[in-house]
Design goal:
The protein is mostly helical and about 425 residues long. The chain has one domain. It has a two-stranded antiparallel sheet with strand order 1-2. A two-stranded antiparallel ribbon has the order 3-4. A hairpin with a 5-residue loop joins strand 1 and strand 2. Helix 8 runs parallel beside helix 10.
Length: about 425
């Protein structure tokens, strides 16, 4: 395992700074958290254990009106009981700490691996970027089952990476069964990773152990029994499939823009109009926010151009199979999320929402780091671009928290009035 002192100079500063920034951005001004119906109900459910109330075997209704599995509430109720968390800010702090723990787990893992310098660089940049990404700052301060997904995603990735051992296969199956119980997008994600592994990793050195994986999957699914019974008894109305969702490709629109953190407009100003400038006008009054967004937009254009060039070069060199199949686990996981999970969600004809990609943590940012580090730009320019993205996102995140603090929430946006203002 390489020590921090043996890493390149920029990582000696950037890794500790990213972890410190991640923790600070999630624990400062916790009374300013978003607090609407979903957050209120999740908090109230977190206080049920040991208070004489019925154990919550089912969660809240989903966007398609089916009740979520109970684990979507247990992830709050169990820690709240163990640590004595009695207020919404305390539960939001738990979500923030879980997010930082997710980053730390994957950082520790990649530093322990006998990985190439390039692979280590890709992962460390991905994790440093999600630490300060404004979208992740917003979502990881919410009392929301979707916001706790990164911890399960990190554990899922670690288990999948160790699938060649029986223990790794067992935990891959078990966590894959649990992750969809936290939020139903996890079912689609776990299936996509499993299918991609079966289809495109057939070499003996890439195989996993079927029996331990199956045992883990069955054991992890036992807590799903009450939800399955609910599903069998559900009499909700069915909707006609919206075939227009196939060509909208919302998933990939989110995938390409989320790593740059460009979409706080809906959160801060959706009631002011649908335009980007309309929604962000007040936010752009904060020092540096407009400049930071300009830097991020320019970076996005350059990255998309480089990604297109790399895609065409790969197709010309190796064809479609070469695009899908790779011997590197990190790139296999990235492809499975980018293509496999995207296709599964899109073809399911559900309206893909941004938070459905929470379960892909931190693979969107891994994609961005791969594009930049495999680009035709010089190594110095690559790092300058990544540092610029990191600094721009940090500035936007800090100013986002200032905006919410100054306005007691974001009354003109989906954020609404903050918990502290409501409580006062």
């Amino acid at each position: 395992m390489p020590k921090l002192s043996s890493l390149p100079l920029h990582w000696k500063f950037l890794l500790p700074l990213s972890l410190l920034a991640a923790l600070s951005l999630r624990l400062v001004w916790l009374s300013d958290i978003e607090y609407k119906d979903d957050e209120r109900r999740a908090f109230e459910a977190s206080q049920t254990l040991g208070n004489g109330q019925t154990f919550p075997w089912l969660g809240m209704p989903s966007g398609v009106l089916i009740r979520n599995p109970g684990a979507s509430l247990w992830v709050f109720a169990i820690p709240a009981k163990i640590f004595g968390l009695k207020s919404p800010p305390a539960i939001a702090g738990l979500v923030g700490v879980a997010f930082v723990l997710s980053i730390a787990l994957l950082m520790g893992w990649i530093l322990r691996q006998k990985a190439s310098a390039l692979e280590r660089e890709r992962w460390l940049w991905a994790l440093s970027l999600v630490a300060v990404n404004p979208l992740w700052v917003w979502m990881s301060r919410k009392i929301w089952a979707q916001s706790i997904l990164p911890l399960f995603s990190a554990l899922f990735i670690l288990a999948w990476m160790n699938r060649r051992s029986k223990k790794g296969s067992f935990f891959w199956g078990m966590i894959g069964a649990w992750i969809g119980q936290v939020h139903m997008s996890g079912f689609f994600f776990a299936f996509a990773i499993w299918a991609w592994t079966i289809l495109f990793q057939r070499k003996s050195t890439q195989r996993f152990h079927w029996r331990p994986w199956l045992v883990g999957s069955v054991l992890g699914s036992l807590t799903l029994i009450p939800w399955v019974l609910h599903l069998l008894q559900w009499n909700g109305s069915s909707t006609h499939p919206d075939w227009g969702l196939l060509w909208q490709s919302r998933y990939w629109g989110f995938w390409f823009t989320d790593p740059l953190g460009l979409h706080l407009g809906n959160v801060l100003g959706v009631h002011l109009g649908n335009g980007f400038l309309e929604q962000n006008r007040a936010f752009f009054d904060y020092a540096g926010v407009a400049i930071a967004h300009f830097i991020l937009f320019v970076a996005l254009i350059g990255i998309l151009i480089q990604a297109t060039r790399q895609l065409l070069a790969k197709l010309q060199r190796s064809g479609w199979r070469g695009l899908l199949v790779t011997s590197e686990d990190s790139l296999t996981l990235r492809n499975a999320a980018l293509i496999g999970y995207g296709l599964v969600l899109t073809c399911s004809l559900v309206l893909v929402r941004r938070y459905y990609l929470n379960v892909t943590f931190p693979l969107e940012s891994l994609w961005l780091a791969c594009v930049v580090l495999h680009s035709s730009w010089s190594p110095r320019l690559q790092r300058l671009i990544l540092v610029s993205i990191w600094l721009a996102q940090l500035l936007v995140s800090v100013q986002f928290l200032r905006f919410v603090h100054d306005h007691q929430g974001a009354p003109d946006g989906d954020y609404g009035i903050s918990y502290g203002q409501q409580h006062r």
